[in-house]
Amino acid sequence: MALRVPVNLRKNLSVVLYAFQGLSFLAVIVGLASLLLLPLDEYSRRTYISENALLPGQVHAYFGGSEQNIVRAFRREVDLLGNSTSDVVAERMAEIFRSAGLKVGKQRYSYKAAGGEYTGENVYAVLHAPRGDATEAIVLCAPWRNIDHLLNEGGVALTLALSRYFKRWSLWSKDIIFLISSDARAGPQAWVDAYHDLHGKNIQSLSVKSGAIQGVVVVDYPGAYHRFESLHIIYDGINGQLPNLDLINTAVQISRDQMGLRTDLQEMWNHDDGYRHRLRTMLRGMVNQALGHSTGPHSSFIPYHIDAITLATHGDGGWHDEGSLGRTVESVFRSLNNLLEHFHQSFFFYLLMAPKRFVSIGTYLPAAMLLAVGLTLTAIRLWVDPRSRSGEEKKEEEKSEKVKEGGVVAVDGGPKRELFLPMSIVIGVHFCGVIPFAVFNSVDYKSMSSVFYIFIAASVILPTLISILITLTASPHRLLPAFHLSRCFSLLFLGMFLSTLATLNFSLSFLIGLFSLPLTFARTTPDSVPLALVNSILLQLTSPFAALFVVAGYWGLGVEDILKEASFGWWVWGMWTPVVVWCVWWPAWVVGRVSVDSSIVMAVMGKRGS
Amino acid sequence: MKLPTWSSLALLSLLPSACLAHSQHTSNWAVLVSTSRFWFNYRHLANVLSMYRTVKRLGIPDSQIILMLSDDVACNPRNTFPGTVYNNADRAIDLYGDNIEVDYRGYEVTVENFIRLLTDRVPPDTPRSKRLLTDDRSNIFIYMTGHGGNEFLKFQDAEEISAFDIADAFQQMFEKKRYNEMLFMIDTCQANTMYSKFYSPNILATGSSELDQSSYSHHADNDVGVAVIDRYTYFNLEYLETHVKNASSKHTLADLFSSYDPVKIASTPGIRTDLFRRDLSEVLITDFLGNVQNVEVDGDGMILDEDLLALARSAGYNITEQEWKDAMTGGYHEKTQEERDTVVGEQRTWEGPARVHKDRDGDFWRNVMSAGAVGVCFVGYWVFSMIDKV
User: Fold this and answer.
1) Which residues contact B119 (CB under 8 A, 6 or more apart)?
2) Which residues from A are below 8 Å from B226, CB to CB?
3) Strands annotated E in A166-267
4) Is A575 helix (H, G, I), strand (E, B) or coil?
5) Any idea where the domains of chain A sit in the sequence?
6) Potential cystine with A425: which of A24, A160, A197, A486 (Cβ 3.0-4.6 Å)?
7) H-helix or E-strand containing B221?
8) Is B147 a catalytic residue?
9) What is the ipTM of this complex?
10) Active-site residue, selected from the candidate residues B44, B189, B218, B333
11) Which residue in chain A has the smallest CA separation from B81?
12) How sure is the predictor about A55, in pLDDT bands with cuts at 50, 70 and 90?
């Protein structure tokens, strides 16, 4: 009984095909709509402190008064060293730490990426917990120059002052490491790699170490002006990994409720907690997550499962100064000090849409999953489609014989699918993905843009070439099924990959899924060349290169800068985004274009297929 | 003229023993348990140490106090004031100051150890300080604090004790004649559920909060950085500190319980008296929280009599040994002895705790109904098997 239905349906497959098409369309629409629903009160949640041990804001913070004068003195010190080389800076910083009675270490590092060399010298000091057991540590970090290459005067001065101030307290249960990294991007990475003995040969080992790092707070307070308006909490890590939500909540609660300091996320300076602002905050966060790049010195720590955030000051019209920031950091450190275990209670997968509003993975995951489901359903539809079958129809007798032999009704009757050609197209193109990946990670910055334009030209022509090659070599009745099936495999692979990726880096999966939507309907149409042309243009507009231009426009940078960043990310941070783009998305796009271009090629060559 | 005076004096000398016959206890013990661990549960330690301080203040010696606590707070590196535990942000009293005897410490605070302690099923090499050496004339005060829920109390994030466990342990204590009367006080979330399963006699129970109610902390010390005491314990202590000044205080448990204010405590404290025979307005707080002030005299009371004789002589009465003995063997003595016997007899004839399923008639009808149900099943089976055959 159960088998009779599909056998009957095969005689009139259009119902099934339309159903798949409808379902696929529905999945995409629901996926997109569910993302837009997230900022609503009904779908998002208020943040809350999950870890009982943290007790944020329950202590008086005493940093202030005369400590403020010390910060200002150190500011002057930093200012004088402003343009010195990193070894001079490191020596002077080490001197200051030593005079505070701390153990000091220095570390030189050198990275090579995109033809450039990134060198510097980190300096750090360890404050051993007077009554602790030295098995755990927390890190206070200030990059000498912040991510925008501004001299981090306030941050470094505050770190120096806090190192003296923290030394006077006897209540630390964990060691405190004060790290002044040479820059905001390579320095922290070199330091954290060396801390875990996973550094390359151009990076010095650390002479002084402490226990397992439980948390990192980075202070980014650039400029000579003391006052600031609000605190910008930056939390995105490498590859879109995020710190535990408890750490962000602790920082938000302390700065807002205890210190009366406004907090901002994702550069949304005037957040009114309305739908539009929440959505924009979320989308900005998603872009950062999808790119998977470093957004500050904290980013490098997160892949080591160390929860880290950057506290950056914003604006210069406010009434907060070093004192407020110092007290905030002090209070956050008292909370970190209270921790009994590694951060684990709260969420690691979330999207923040306001400082006190978030959605967790269970709520947002369906959005990306449904896009991937849309792709997979299209792939299944292509598999079921009779146009994917080639070869002559077998005779009725043979068929019935087969049924008798098997003893059951053969479900997969009818002409067979030729798998070799489509499989080799898909696998071959995916292997080709290694080429752009390798090229862009080894090319010099200077020749980056020219290589990129050559590559664009190459990948515009490549699909057409492949389709011409196949059309010329393959027999006519196999052509159409081959293009159908190659699209089917490619979409199947993309759908599977994206649904897996969604659990690791939701935003990247969602954005690739969004850009890949034309792949679900851009098909081989040998009967209609104009439609094929439209599809081809549409695919061109949603290609990985187009996305690259969009990102470049979003950051206001040149394409070569984005590619340089990607190369730097791969060599320094171990950023996987280029792998995903070149080895998964680009091949899927190429196969999509092959099947669209083939309709034009077939029309021109007069091969209409079977 | 003189003899009536002697008689009244003799009566006076018997008064303490008459009181004894009434309140029935000759020793006081306290079991104080903090089931929490970790720095952020500072307040539970402070709760229990406050109670420890109170019972010691009211005269229970350390040898009769079993103190169970994780003891990881005073010397915690996070403690701003090393070696101290305070129960108030004014930091007036260091509860950990000196003379603290912790009997079960750290990982020794387990459900098993607690129940073994209560029921005295301890290994033979257990030191006296870790045993509850009570008898049927001992009043026990049990105070527990920690994180609880509906009918359970967590022990150090590792295990939990249920209300049934404690109730059964108490019944064993009763059967083993390990207490005379017991006061059970508990300060946790949903605390009142913990004593809901008790069924042994002579237990008075009180808790901080009802089912589905949380117990809250009273206030935090912003230098220590944690909450330092829970509300229920705080207001208990406030009453005890301001009213029960010393061991001879005449304040009763009725006074203490009527001082509870659900608004201040922020939860509804509960009292369970159905297992307890005495009227609360006659039960002194010091019957449980203080040490027994009365002394039971062994033998015929001759030593006391001689002391009284000496006292009488020094007061100027001229009295011979023979006159004194006559007065001592007067009718008053015999009469009180009888009275005491009747009281003891009353206790012996007491029928035991009120159980739930004691209704014999109900049992009979229930049996009939269950037999009927079995019969119906049997008939049904027979009918269906017939149908099947047809």
Assistant:
1) B169, B172, B173, B176, B178
2) 55, 58
3) 175-181, 212-220, 230-234, 262-265
4) coil
5) 8-37+365-389+398-605, 66-355
6) A486
7) strand B217-221
8) yes
9) 0.82
10) B189
11) A171
12) very high
Q: Would you write out chain B's pLDDT as a tens digit for each of its 390 residues? A: 444 555 554 444 444 444 444 457 889 999 999 999 999 999 999 999 999 999 999 999 999 999 999 888 999 999 999 999 999 999 998 999 878 999 999 999 999 999 999 999 999 999 999 999 999 899 999 999 999 999 999 999 889 999 999 999 999 999 999 999 999 999 999 999 999 999 999 999 999 999 999 999 999 999 999 999 999 999 999 999 999 988 888 899 999 999 999 999 999 999 999 999 889 999 999 999 998 766 655 555 556 667 777 887 887 777 777 777 777 665 444 444 554 444 444 443 444 444 444 455 667 888 899 999 999 999 999 998 888 877
Rg (chain A; Cα; Å): 29
The DSSP bridge pattern shows strands A136-143 and A175-181 to be: parallel
List the structure tokens of A442: 């080894």
Residues whose CB falls within 8 Å of the CB of residue A78, separated by 6 or more in sequence, listed in order? A151, A153, A156, A157
Query: Which residues of chain B make contact with A172, given a CB cutoff of 8 A?
Result: 77
The count of C-alpha atoms lying within 13 angstroms of the C-alpha of A563, restricted to the half-sphere facing its C-beta, is 29
Pairing of strands A136-143, A212-220: parallel
- CA–CA min distance A80, chain B (Å): 38
Asked whether the beta carbons of A203 and A109 are under 8 A apart, the reply is yes
- Nearest CA-CA partner of A301 in A343, A260, A243, A352: A243
B75 is catalytic: no
Q: Closest partner residue to A171 among B38, B77, B220, by Cβ?
A: B77
Counting every residue written for chain A, the total comes to 610
Q: Which of B147, B218, B219, B243 is catalytic?
A: B147
Interface test with B, best of A332, A340, A344, A345 (most B CBs within 10 A): A340
Q: Quick check: A451 and A443 in contact, CB under 8 A?
A: yes
Cα separation, A497 vs A487, whole angstroms: 15
Q: What is the arithmetic mean of pLDDT over A503-510?
A: 94
Residue of B nearest to A51 (CA): B40
Neighbouring residues of B290: CB distance < 8 A, sequence distance ≥ 6: B28, B55, B58, B59, B60, B244, B247, B249, B284
* pLDDT at res. A137: 96
> Which helix (H) or strand (E) is B275 found in, with range?
none
Alpha-carbon radius of gyration of chain B: 27
Closest residue in B to A335 (Cα) is: B225
Chain A residues within 8 angstroms (CB to CB) of chain B: 52-53, 55, 58-60, 129-133, 170-173, 334, 337-338, 340
Give CA angle at A420 (A415, A422), nearest 5°. 90
Vertex A328: Cα angle to A327 and A329 (nearest 5): 90
Supply A414's token pair: 């009818």
Which CATH fold topology does A66-355 show? Aminopeptidase (3.40.630)
Cβ–Cβ pairs < 8 A, chains A and B? 41
Chain B residues in contact with A58 by the CB 8 A cut-off are: 220, 222, 225-227
Q: Do B76 and A59 touch (CB under 8 A)?
A: no
Tell me the pTM.
0.83
Name the residue of chain B whose CA is nearest to A133's CA. Answer: B77
Verify whether the Cβ–Cβ distance B225 to A173 is below 8 Å: no
Q: How far is CA A252 from the centre of its chain?
A: 23
Smallest Cα distance from A508 to chain B, Å: 39
Chain B residues touching chain A at CB-CB below 8 Å: 38-40, 76-80, 82, 220, 222-223, 225-227
Which residue, A110, A106, A62, A70, is CA-closest to A87?
A106
Residue B157 Cα, gap to closest chain A Cα (Å): 13
Q: What is the largest CA-CA distance in chain A?
A: 99
